[in-house]
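In the current project phase, the collection of sequences with tokenised folds has grown. One resulting record follows, to show the layout:
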Amino acid sequence: MATPVPPPEAPQQLGGYWAPPGLPGTPPGPPRRRDGFGVAAVVLGGFGTVFGLAPFLLWLMGVLDFDSPTVILLVVLLPVVVGLAGVLGLASLVFGLVGHGEARKGRASNKGMALTGTGLGGLALMLAALSVVVAVTALAGDRDRVTGAEARGRDVTPTAPPNREAPERVEPLRFGQTHVYDDGVKVTVSEPRPYKLDEFAIGHEKGDLAVQVRITIVNGGAEAIDDLAALPHVRDAAGQVPENIFDARGATKPATGALLPGRRAVAQVTLSVDPDKAGELQVEISPTPEYDSVVWIGPADGGARPS
């Protein structure tokens, strides 16, 4: 007689999970996080932003110059740098958007990093586009300047540089008068006028006069004046230097930069003058260090009252 065979063992249910017969039930692990997209977006965006800033830094340091011996190197490296900024920025933008989508679906935990990478990618793309504009403008402007100078050198007979010295030692001028240099540059110093101080004024001594002098420089010559630095040296009747007054309205403001032919620049200086030493004010100024200084004199208390 045949021995009966027992029926197959049914699968066991352990802890809510089904397991094959004879094996303990093991619950499945947590879903795998996909945080790599956000990390990659931040890294690529950071490098892209650095490459995008490179042309601006070179321009600020004066390296982007058509006259520079490194111009050939710049022409070769600049497209590479800008191209890297664009490629890295685009990749960072894509990875950041994908990482943000994964975070919204619960498959990633670095939503903030993904958004940061997206922003860096967009910034790198913008800097790459602006770098192209800045580099082309800088190089083209320098090329026009150099070629124009060469053309003038071929077509025009070289002339002696303008005489920026006073023809002779002139006597001090009175306030309101104008001194004309040999190259046509004109300088006028106005009479001291009372100045009303605001609540933010500094440099004024209580009881002193607050007076302002305006210096007007007109370039009547044929060449631009470079490195304009019109801030006068002032002494009172006792030969002492009064304090300059500064406030939020620009009480004291020098004229700086370049002055083109036919243009004018105005500087102003506001002074704290002792009333006992205001009988005469001496203002000495020159448009730039290359010009001889000229002196203007006159009383400083024209209608001013101590404050």
